[in-house]
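Q: Focus on the shape:
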Amino acid sequence: MIAAGLLDRFGAGYSDKDVEEFVCNACLGSKGHRLPFPDSESHSPERLGLVHSDVLLFPTPSLTGKRYLVTFLDDHSRKLWAYVIDHKSNVFPTFQTWLADVELETNARLRVLQTDNGGEYQSNAFTEFCKSKGIHRQYSIPYTPQQNGCAKRVNLSIVEGVLALLADSHLPATFCDEAAAYFVYCKNRCSHSALAKQTPESVLNGQRTTVTALHPFGCAVWLTVAPDLCSKLDPKAARVIFTGYDLASKAFCFFDHSTNKVVIGQNATFLDDDFPGLPINTPVDADDTERQFVIPADTPAPAVKTRTPLVSPLPSPLLAPFSSPATSSAGGPSLDDSDDPLDLLNSDTAVRLNLMNIHRSDDDTLVTPAPAIDSVEQPSNDDSPDEIDFLSRHHCAFIATENDDPTLEAIEPVKSITSDPQTWREAMSSDEHDIWAQAAAAEFTAMRDDFKVFTIEPCSSVPPGATIVTSKFVWKTKRDARGDVTGRKARLVAQGNRQRDGIDFSETFAPVARFSSICCLLALAAANGYHVHQANIDKVYLHGELDHNIWITTPRGFDFPSDKVLRLWRSIYGLKQAGRIWNCHIDTSLRSLGYKATGTDHCIYSHIDDQQRPHYIALYVDNLLIVSPVLNEIERVISGLEQRYGVKRLGPAKYILGIQIRRLDNGSIALSQERYIMDVLARFHFDTTTRGATVPMTPGLSLTAVPGQGTERIRSWYLQAIGSLLYISLGTRPDIAFAVSYLSRFANNPGRCHWIAVKHVLCYLRATYRDELLYTRGPAKVTGVVGYSDANWGACVDMSISTMGFVFYLAGSAVSCFRNLGPEAQCT
């Protein structure tokens, strides 16, 4: 402006050079912006000369429960690899696997790896591995993704491709991993602008690209079922959904909606113009394996056929095949040739076993399943496994009771239990990671500041030869009797398997109340109209002082120097002696309140007041069940315990140890394990299509132990099922006691016939999940204990040992039952 003569008498004494060199700090601080990034002019001239890598996060977990996708892009060929992982910490082992495979495939060596500055790429193990392999590392600076532009652009392409595939196929977001794999497969076989219209696959391998196997993602497919998996009258093909390719098996991947599993197969007829899709809330199996099972084919695979869909509607997924009861067998090994125990859980197996149909009403018509009560957030056709549609009829198989609550049929189904995280990594990668992190921080702070459980000391303070026990967090979701979440807890525990007997601990035994004792107390309470209240003591294992010197490692997730350990002064969860220390501590407290342990059960405490009224306390670790004729005594006990511990007043007992307690208007008490049974059924894939059984075991069933007839997988599932059934029978279901005891004899070497018999018990529980033990009101019911006993010698064909059993009744229902083999063989 001065040079143009627009300003007079201004700028005198300033040269053009002075003006150019003038710096305004205020302007620099106020108007700073990022300069344009120059385009990269360099490209790798050889395969694996430069590889770009990044991690992509999906907002919705995939079919396998994983949410992360790690990508590797070869700069020379533009070949893309993508792997679904459950957490960023799996990037390094995934990189090792990818590197070994690709270097073997291409006979080339990775020279430069370009990544961002994420912690998954900066670990010591990752850095040392690259150094040992001679791999040069290049990093982008923080908050500058433009320096890793190739990887970021690939991530954008994957996201856009996945969105397009899901929208076109009408599949929910849980299919993101299958859609991503399909997109990568197609992208590697499409021409690229940077490759002079060549494809990445052809540039990398030098082979011509073929696309004969390409089909639209999400299209309908008729997949041929192997002859060994169906009978003569069964359909020979299943209608599934095409989801991609299994390169390891040279097969196609399909989603079977009837089983909610991803399957692989080869003999298929594709309907490229038919996209059946799935509802957005369709449940899927979140298993750790990416492929659930394989439909084999024992004949050479013909050429894949592609047809236009018929105008008429296609049939629904395979119907359960029916077999004649007259030709069925409960123990025949030819019922199913699959080695997968889950494959024996199909809904048709109950019919093949000649199991009875669903409980019938008086007019011999099938009971119509009652629809689940829908929540506000879910539509009326929701098939979510957390809202299982149960039979509406309330059964009592071994106790004749009336429906005391007219609203019983209208209540919403009890929710199933979902699995809790098993590791810190799973907890921090879950949707509730903030809640779990807060729970872990609160637990650690309470142990350090409130309970003075440990002190932080250097490793040099540990005496030579002492064991440093490892520690970890255990995660637990707290639920009420209906399965609703009431809170989440994180427990810092010691891994006591590292402790040494005689050095780190001595005595370990700690009693708990028996189920039969708890049932007796509840029966007495029902018969006499006593009050039954429940209380819970917080952090019970942190109250007792240790009698041995123990050190543990610092927990994961907290910023501790590597040379620090925790010196324990009080017991914590996981130590072998922790239970005994707590039991001695609470025993002293209860005795100071005037209670003493009974001679038959050391965790049942009794007290007789001045008016000769009895009061009882059942102790099961941190759970207290207080039975008393008057509320004043219950208040006295809880107030006395509150002076020593943190006590949660839970009021009238409703739920303890997986048992639901229901007090009727007339004072009677009903016990059931509805929620726990429901969780067990869900764990073994029993849903609303599973047929029920009227008896826990097929009458006249005789099983024998045949060495080597089962697989290790069947044995693992068998042991899990037997353990769950034992807990149910000990709690409130003595009607399955004999069946469970009989089947547990074959736990060492179960075969298919034994597993099918276990499934029969589960089918029975499926039909009678609401059965209850009912203890009635009235002193006449408890004038004496009624017991029954019997033995059977002829049924044991293997060892000729008698099977003995008894059951005792109190207040009109069972309080204790026992069944077992005799001590020695009997002969006549």
User: Anything to note?
Assistant: The chain is about 25% helix and 20% strand. The radius of gyration is 34 Å. Residues 626 and 634 are 7 Å apart (CA to CA). The chain has a mean pLDDT of 76.
